[in-house]
Every structure is written in C-alpha cells, then in structure tokens.
Batch of 2 targets.
Target 1
Amino acid sequence: MREYLLTIALAATLCYLITPFIKSLAMKAGAFINVRSRDTHTVVTPRWGGIGMWISMSVTFMVVNHLPLVAKSFGREATGIFIAGTFIMILGALDDMYDLDSITKFAGQAVAGGILLLHGVQILWLPINGIYILPPSIGQLLTIFFVMVVINAVNFVDGLDGLATGIVAICAMAFFAFSYLLAVVNGLNRAGAPSLITAVIIGICIGFLPHNYHPARIFMGDSGAMFLGLLLSAAAITLTGQIDLNAITSAGSDTALLPLLLPFSVLAIPFIDLGMAIIRRLRAGRSPFAADKEHLHHKLLSMGNSHRRTSAILYSWTAMFAFPTVVAAFAPLWVSLAVGLLILIFSLALIRESLVSSNVKTK
C-alpha cells in the first residue's frame, strides 16, 4: 500500500507543478475556449489539461517502475493502456485546438479500444446466469463499445469547473479500493494494472483540481476527458481479467460479479447525465451531440447553487453510488446501506442550505 500511496503522491505533485506550464503553452498555441452562451465561465480559458496529465503519468511510470511491488504491475496490459492513452490524448489535444467532428472522435476512440485489444485488454466474461465466457469476437466488440461509452460519459460531465476532475477522482478511489481489497481478501496478486492505473488517476486528478476548481484557470479539455475516460475503462476491464473466477465463485462470493457492474455504479452520475441528454435531444428533434444548458449541473445552478456547491453536490452523489458498492463486496449489506444513507443525508443538507440561502436573498 505504501508504494501505491507514493505513486498517488508523485502523480499529484507532478501534475500540480506541470499544469501552469501547460496553461501558458495552450494560450500561445491557441488551444483555448472563448465564452459561449452555454458556458459557465466568463473569461477565455486554456484547454490542454490532458497534456499535463499525460506527462505526469509518464514520469510517474518511469519512477515507480523501480519500486519492488509496483514494478510488477508493468506488463503487456499496462503498455497497451499507456499507448492507447497517448493516442487518445493526442486526438483530444487536436480537438481542443480544431474542434474535430464527432465521427472523427468516435473513430479515434474505437482505434484506442483496438490498441487495448492488441495488448490483451479485453472483456472476457459477463455475469449472465452465473459466469458466461464470451466468444472472442463478441468480447472484442463489447470492449470497444464499453471504452467508448465511458470516454463519452466522462466527456459529457465535463461542463463545470472541477466537476469531471472530482468525479473521476472519486470513481478511481472506488476502483482502487475494490481492486486492492479484492487482492487482499482473496489472496490475489496486489501488484496489477488496475491498482496502478487507478492510483495514477487519483494522483493526477488531485494535482489538477487546484488549477481546475472554480474559478478554473485551465480546463482539462477533450485531451483530459477522453484520456481519463480511457484509463478508467481500461482499469475496469483489466480487473476482470485478473480475477480467478473459479476460486472466488467456489468460495460462494458475489465479488466476482462486481468488476463489470462497478463501472456502472461508480460512473452512475456521468451515465445518467449522458442518457438524459441523448433522450432529451432526440425528443427535441436535435442531434444527441448538440450542446445545451440542461445538464444536471445546469439544473443545480438554476436552483441557486454556486459553482462550488454544485460540484460538491455532484461529488456526493457520485460517492453515494460508488462507495456503498465497494463496501457491499466486503461487508454486510446493512453497512453498505448505512454508508449510502450518510452520504445522501450530506448531499441533501447541501441542497437544503443552498435553498435556504436563495430564499433569504430573494426576500
């Protein structure tokens, strides 16, 4: 655990120190976003936060590769994740500058998924009537689809200062806790790509958040949103491949079913926002990718919440889905429900306080 904590601290420190230089570079290169009608920011803001994240990850990999435990996490899968992450970051950086069309981005996301497949990162089974081993071709299609869905879910939720950064950090914490505890409880290898990748995600998000929190001085852009989405999806897929299903199911544990269910739990808020946006736009006769001001964070802002409080509320909602799912894998159900209830009470208190403040101001 100490080596993973060191990995998190190193990635956070590097991202925090590198990001100001990326900010200056983005402004000089023209990779910035002007103020649009649907935006919540009021000044021209640079993008390319994903480049700083990628540099931080790369340097962190080079350093922790010399640690006794974490070094064992590097292999074919970690190499594939690094190459695919590099590719998707470059695609996102180009989009931050030139606003690429949706088809080009989807094609690039599929290519990134293909890179993962070439390095053995693939969905091998599904929790259908027990454990169903997928035919290779079906597993490959599902892998690419899953990667693309997670990438776009993260991208959709990136509409408020610090929102996507914080949500992804919480998701990565849940993934890391699950993968590490699963290894400890079931005697599996604690050095694996899922723990390494999620530790790095936590670090770069923590390091980037001070620059990205309201008022944001830099945005992660598509270079960051797609990069983080790919890392999250790859971590979830590699986790399923490292589980000894026979050992776990023979012990009567339900944790074997969670690796593929966990992403939909910890990413519940991005997925809900994505689904609502697609349905809303199709009903209005618009493209599902046409931007609007009706996302969850827009609705919370319209209720009188500040930028920071809105982010805090959505952070708490993410935690409410993520952490009880992890707890349920290793503790009695009532403990999981209690954790979820406590987080729900906290989020309701935040909303109530904002409504009270709003009513006081209007009187």
Target 2
Amino acid sequence: MSIRHIFATALAPALIGLIFLTAPTGGFAAEGEDPEDTYKLLQLFGDVFERVRGDYVEKPSDKELIESAINGMLSSLDPHSTFFDADSFKEMQVQTKGEFGGLGIEVTMENGLVKVVSPIDDTPAFRAGLQPNDLITHLDGEPVLGLTLNEAVEKMRGPVGADITITVVREGEDPFDVTITRAVVKIQSVRSRLEGDIAYIRITQFTEQASNGLTKAMKKLRNEIKDAKDNQTLRGVVLDLRANPGGLLDQAIAVSDAFLEYGEIVSIRSEQHPEDTQRFNARPGDLTNGLPMVVLINGGSASASEIVSGALQDHGRAIIMGTKSFGKGSVQTISPLGEYGAMKMTTARYYTPSGRSIQSVGITPDIDVPQSTIESVEPQSQRRERDLRGALDKDNGEDADDKDGAQADGEEEEQVDYQLTRALDLIRGIRLFQGMTESSTKG
C-alpha cells in the first residue's frame, strides 16, 4: 500500500498531505484496561446522546451531535488530530494540488487562540504583514476563544474578494486589527535566482510540485550562469526554508535525497506499533555535485522543513543557519470514513538520522543568526582631504562623487535580508578557503 503522511499543521486554509489508510481494528480496551469498563463508558456515551436528543431545548441534529462528539474526542488528543466532514475532506484534497481560496496562512491552536505558523508567500496574509507566532484573538470582532481550530478556519474562509478583519496579538506590541481580502491562493512552491555565482532556492511549501520544481530550478540556474558568465559554474547553494510550514512527506524525502549520496533521511516510529517503524534512505546522486550548501530556517519552519534540515544537518551536508525551527515532529494519518469524511490523527513521531526527535524542540541551527536590519555607522558628514583649504587635486573625481551622492539621496534604501547575506558570505568564505587549500597543495 502506498502511504503518504502529512506534516503540515492545521490550515487557514492550508496545504496538507494525505495518507489514505484504513485504520487497524482492535479490541475496545487498551492493554491493561478492563474491557467491561470500556463497555460501561460506551453505554454512558449512549445515555448522554439519548438525553441530549430527547431533552435539549431545541431539537438537535443527530449527524451534528455525532460529528461534534468525534471531533471532540480527536481534538482532545493534541492540536493536530481532528475530524473532517465530507465537504472539508474534499476541499483538503484539492489543497494538496497547490491552489485554493482563502487568506494564505498556516495556523495551529495555542491556549485557545489561533497561532500563525507562517504566512504563505505572495498571499493576502503575507501582504498584510502577518508574521509567525502572531496570535489571532478575534475574527470580525467575534472572539476565537471557545472555537475549535476547524471552526476558526471555517470562519476565516469565505468568498473570494470578501474582507475579514482579524485582531492580532504580537509579542511586544498592543493588539491591532488587520483587514484582509480573501483571494484564490496559488502556491508556487519553488522560487529561485542567482546571487552572483551562488544558487538561491526558496521552497515555500512541500506541495506535489516541490521536488520537480527543485530539479528544474537547478537546471535553470546552471544554464543562466553558463550563458551570462562565459561558461562559469555555480559555486554554492542556499536553500531557504524559512516560514515553510511543511507539506508532503514524500516531497521532503525527495528534496533531502536530491542533496545526499547515501544514508538515512528520516524514520517514523509509533509507540503503539513499533513493528511498523519505517526508514527512508537516500539513493546515490547529489543534484549539486557536492557544492557548499547553507539551509536557512526560522521559527516558521515546521514539519517537512525540519525533516530536510535535520537530515542535511546530521549528515554534515549543509550548514543550518537562522533561528530555531517550529518543533513539529509528529506524524498525522488521514483515514477516509466513506461518505462521512475522514479523520486525521497523530499516529507516530519522526526522527532525524541521528535518532533525534524534534517534537516540541525544533532544529537548532549550526549558526544562530536572528533576522536583523543593517544600518550604516559611517558618519553622515565626514571631512576628507579635498575639504581641506588648499588641498592638491581638489576637483579630481568630483563629478563621480556628486553623481553617487545624488543617487544615494534620491533613492530609498533597499531592504537587506541579513540572514541571506550571512549565508552568501559563508559560502563565499568556504569557496575561498577551498581555493587557498587547493593552491597550497599544488604548490
């Protein structure tokens, strides 16, 4: 049976992967529990159900009661286990294709509030300035507290073009409102460009297109640098997984495999069924032929992103740079329930090649680099030789300096990605050191 696991957190709306798996059937009672007690508890459930049907102030729907009971049972386990009715299940299947309608944020639940894992690049939420770890307290003035994650997600969805106002709490700031216009969200999972002679590749989510997109991006960048720089070759790779909330396991494995020649990528282990442990290994062939590599992560890098960064870190294939990742090391399985929808339940944990479980811990970068702004410490007004009375060649180069000054005064300062700048500098330093070592060996 072909099994696909999901690693993305719950969504608003969001991208998640699927496992179509028939759940194993076993006895009612867990090991060490008395089956008779279990039957009594099931009888209790039946008694409460009948009492609600018969005596509640308004006639409830049997379907809604049972679905709510199932959802309550699953959501009480952990933030990622939940029930999908038939409509939600169909919508979720569409989302794995990489296009859906909504705000474009990945969310989870924390202390009864909706917590932003990350906004998706070039979506309404991204353009509105939402950030990882933002807490959403109100939706159109209505409190989130008391809603399940699915209920909150449903409220955030709506017709394309319709506005929604969300109240956001961000660390160090007073609560503020943001109005976002819903739109069709199209995910371009892989983006790439040249940074000099270094390949910069950003994977926004591990959708079905991620692995193929990576291969195409590397081919495109090789051709670009060859055409533009007289047969020059790439000197390194920066893989940007910042604010990437995860996606499909098979895509995380394929992306990891693209940079590894051999060895384990990830293992999946269940305490309930240790005999079902799965290990996934790399096949020979490095897409970059061993080029120096830096992987960028931050607090919005979750799940499948952590599989990739953990595998490359444990094998010493890449230097991990940025800030600690989100810490979602659990595996969810989706089991279809026929015409009624599906259930998503946490069934296992995943482990990096060295045996680390990063659940609630995250991946710690090899080089911790918080995102920062770069400011010039050069004095705005500084006397030079030409400013001195009677200086020689006082007019030499004056036109060029005036031109530079006018350009600087007339342009807005470009936003600098400090973490990316550090990554590029590191790769250039590695290449410089390798070149010096080769020269020394030849000499």
